[in-house]
Amino acid sequence: MNDIPALARGCAVLGTGGGGDVRTGSLAAIRAIREYGPVPLLKLDDLPGDALILPLSGIGAPTVSHEMIHGEDEPKRIAEEAERIFGRPPSAIMSSEIGGANGVAPVAWAAQLGVPLLDADGMGRAFPEVQMVSMYVAGIPADLVIMSDVAGNVVTIRPVDGLWSERIARAVCVAAGSHALMSDYLLTADRARGAVIEGTVTRALEIGRATEGAADPLAALRDRLGATRLITGKLTDVARRTTGGFVRGTATIEGTGDDRGRRLTLELQNENLVADEGGRIRAMVPDLITVVDTETAAAIQTEALRYGQRVTVLAWPCDPLWRTPKGLETAGPRAFGYDLGYVPVEELSHG
């Protein structure tokens, strides 16, 4: 339970603005541990090869998740449906995305189900669409999606591929009020090897602990991430709307201090996707772009951005999987409709 605050801070940073509010996920995790006991954190090699791994995440617009909070029934209903289909219960829970609440809430879901949490996820960050996971990039069929909502509905989807899993799951999510719990790419431990991003829960904890007691939290966070500082300044404009199960919009930061006279615009789709400074691209997906409070280095989600906030924008390299041809096809800038050829952030920052 003492690890939850650090995990939440790290997941907020890795969320790149999305993944849901870590505060609600933290409260749920602390409450579940108090009620059900601690949750073991296992490596993939700790599981037998035939162990069933249940990836779980919230799907929908983060703005809605503040008011429509998951209860205890949704993960139980999904686990029961998985057991009905596979003939055995899940052996471990895995976060589908380590970013935001979707990285913290699995602690609660694992406690409620009485199973361990896997030290891995499917993104190494947060992405907004169902097919944007390492399992899809690895070629694992997206032939089963199980969803449950606060009304008690359980929906099982048998899509023909990952793109159809996004279309159908998004439609179900919108019908449920733009917020639901989902499991997709259910797989055994043997099949997960090479298809998931390992060690990401531990990484989130390390990122969260980096700023604890630091004299300069922002410098400590940058060092831990190996991040480039894109700008430090004040939020002067935020345009945001919830549509189609996503939060979309832009945020503009006017530079202050040494950055006075500069202006950076962030393009948003749940997460921060592209950083543009006067027509010069400074960073782009799948690399990570996060807005943090300049004084505390606490990450700020897209739905919490407000006029006048004093912020710093950081960017750093994604997991190498996302820089492969399939990874860029899945979650590179063109996957989001931007006519941009991918350039790594480390090249853009020195360009």
Automatic annotation (TrEMBL):
Residues 162-345 form the S-Me-THD-like C-terminal domain. SUPFAM superfamilies: CV3147-like. It comes from the Bacteria. Residues 3-157 form the S-Me-THD N-terminal domain. This is DUF917 family protein.
